[in-house]
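PROTEIN SPECIFICATION:
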Amino acid sequence: WGIGQCLINVSDFTCAEIGTDNKYKFEIDDGTNLFNTSEQTGPNITEDNVVIYYNSGNDTEVNRSWDSTSLFIIGINDTDRENTPIQGVNLSFWVTTDGETWGDENKTATNTSGYSNQYFNPDCSYFAGVQKWKSGLINNCYEDVNTTNYTITIHGNLINDISTFADSTILRSEQNVTVDAVIQDDCSIGQNESSVTLGLNTQGAIHNCTPVIDLNDGYYRCIRNTSDMIAGWYNISVNASKQYYVTNNTYIEINPFFIETRPEVINQTVNSSQGGDTGGWGERFYFTINATDE
């Protein structure tokens, strides 16, 4: 007989019991008597507290046009359960598309160690340049948390071409060469503000075409005087470079134009059979001329 105190430690609640509508009661059984207490409200069970932490993937680089990926690794622990790694929950990953706007959410489940491994392979929805990425947990069983922002540099490729250049003949010194080039990236977007070099090449001779004018939308133009160019067929080489793009990509257009020269005609003379430029109508006359050309 007497008064006693009963203390029960319960630690096997589940996520399904989260809420404020829980109730409990005690049942006392001394072997002879069975007594139930009235129901009491509680406990108020909430989402578990967690800690999310970075493992790897910050300040990495990836090429958008190659079959290349960058690995982001983020871990998460349940601090209400003595920092136990959380297995089998989806961590969300986001990467900015233009440096500020967050792209589509990608989810990857955590492994037995509480790590989520996200392989990032960007497509054309992501601009070349430095982008931000982050990870977070959105789950009904745990509090929502996000990492800080990290960075990744996305590289693209430049594709060089001659936009319009019909096979043509150009008269040296009297006509200029006009070269129109187009610079696009691996997503077919014209790239302004590129460093573009145009070369006119023949028989081992290389003539730079300068200045190269940026016409916008990826189009560039150069007009060159031909007075110092020898006669012959010419190739056009196009090289472009730009920050965050693969460089040293040279395109060569084979024989798009021919430089010709105007012949020089001098020393025109006429002589009759008897000599001089005078003779009868029945005589034979001899006409001569000197013509020179490259």
Observations:
- The chain is about 0% helix and 50% strand.
- The two ends are 129 Å apart (CA to CA).
